[in-house]
Amino acid sequence: MDQRLNIGNATEALSDRLSSDAAFADLTRRLRRPLMQFFLRRTRSSMDAEEMVQDLFVRLLRRGDLFSLDNVDGYVFEAAANIARDRGRYDQARGRGRHVDIDDLSAESEDPGAEQILDGKQRLKRMLAALDALPPRARTVVILRRFENLTYPQIARRLGISVSAVEKHMVRAMAALRLDLIETDR
Fold first, then answer.
1. Which residue of 39, 67, 93, 117 could cross-link 49, Cys pair, CB 3.0 to 4.6 Å?
2. Alpha-carbon gap, residue 183 to 105, rounded angstroms
3. DSSP line for 6-37
4. Does the predicted model carry a pTM greater than 0.85?
5. Radius of gyration of the chain measured on its C-alpha atoms
6. Which pLDDT tens digits describe the chain residue by residue (186 residues)?
7. Contact 66/72 with Cβ under 8 angstroms?
């Protein structure tokens, strides 16, 4: 008889636990979305809101007499308000939102570094040497076009040559400069 009483108590406890688990699953399905909206209005972060919903459900799960309360939904939202207040105090005490995230900082400056400056100076030297190696007329055409921004007709008038001649000088000069830079970069 005593053994049947223990089995009966165990069966009843198991039955109570299963019905409590089903009720809790129903509660989480029913209130997850409203709780997310509740927390989103207060945090403006979906990650924080989701974390707070999970924290709330863990707290509720630990409370054994949850479903014996008269107004479970009211209790849940009161607990949610407490979690939101606690989070707000925590964030304020830790200065959250007043700190700059180090991942957002960029150590790079827009100013060129020493290596870039040195590289630029070396490229300029090579370019000037390649420019000096051009025939005088071609060098003049390149300088007038690239450094003084004159058009081909303006260069032709200034040098007393045809526009076609200016184009030919420019094409040959640019090909020679490109070739010279490729060879020095190797």
1. 39
2. 40
3. HHHHHHHHHHHHHHHHHHHHHHHHHHHHHHHH
4. no
5. 40
6. 555 555 555 455 444 555 567 888 888 898 899 889 988 888 878 898 899 989 888 888 888 787 778 888 888 888 888 988 988 888 777 766 565 666 666 666 677 788 888 988 888 888 888 888 889 999 999 999 988 999 999 999 999 999 999 999 999 988 888 887 777 666
7. yes
